[in-house]
Amino acid sequence: MQLVAYLDTSEPLALEDVKNHLRLDTDEDDWNLSSIIIPGARAHAEALTHSVLRKAQVIYTIGDFPRITAGIYPPIVLSAPNARSVDAIHYLDDSGQLMALTGFRTLIDTNQVKIIAPSFPVLSNPPGDAVKIMLTAGYTQQEFASYLPTVAQWMLLAIGWAYTQRDLFSNDAKLFAQMPSSYTDGLLQAANALPSFA
User: pLDDT per residue over 177-187, tens digit each?
Assistant: First the structure.
C-alpha cells in the first residue's frame, strides 16, 4: 500500500476532544497538541495496525489480474483495513499503454476489498506492478470515534502519555514507540490489518 494524499485536513481526533480528555482549559499547548502529539499518536496507531485511520487516497499494486478458472473470473481480494471505496483501477497492457479497467463492482467489509468483474484483461508478461488500484480509506473526524471507538480510546491514552512526556519530544521523534503497550495495544485490534497485509 502506498499513501497518495490525505483527503481531510483534520486529524481523526478533534483538538477540543483531546483537551477535554486531558482536562486542559487553556490554549497554551494547542500548537504542540495539534501539530505534534495528535498527528504522532495517529501515525503510530497506523504503523502498529498497518492501516489508514485519517481519510486518505492509497494505491495497492498487484502483479496481474486473476486468471479465469472453470469459466469464472475470481475476484481480486485485497487486505485493506478501513477501505471506503475503490476509485479507479489502472493497468499496463501488453504494449505498455496505461489503461483503465471499467465495469467492475466492489464488496467492502472492515478489512477486505473484493473487486468483481465479468472479465479481467489477460496480460501475457506483466511486470510486477502492472495493476494499480486506487482506494479511499480511513475516516473523517466526524466518523472516526463511531467506527473505531477502541482505537479512539487508544489514541487518547497515547496522547495523554505523550502530553506528560512532551518535553522529551524535542529530543526524540520516536517517543510513542517508548509508550507502555502491554494492555493498551489491544484497543487497536479493530483497525488491525489481516495477517496477509503487506
Answer: 666 665 456 55
- Whole-angstrom distance, CA of residue 144 vs CA of residue 84: 13
Residue closest to 40 by CA, chosen among 192, 161, 145: 161
Write down the residue that cell numbers 481519510 correspond to.
55
Half-sphere exposure of 165 (CA within 13 A, CB side): 22
Amino acid in the structure at residue 164:
T
pLDDT in tens, 109-153: 878 999 999 999 999 888 888 999 999 999 999 899 898 899 999
Domain segments of the chain: what residues? 13-53+143-191, 56-137
Bridge partners (DSSP) of residue 58 are 3, 135
HEC string for the chain: CEEEEECCCCCCCCHHHHHHHHCCCCCCCHHHHHHHHHHHHHHHHHHHHCCCCECEEEEEEECCCCCCECCECCCEEEECCCEEEEEEEEEECCCCCEEECCCCEEEECCCEEEEECCCCCCCCCCCCCCEEEEEEECECHHHHHHHCHHHHHHHHHHHHHHHHCHHHCCCCCCHHHHCCCCCHHHHHHHHCCCCCCC
Amino acid in position 129: D
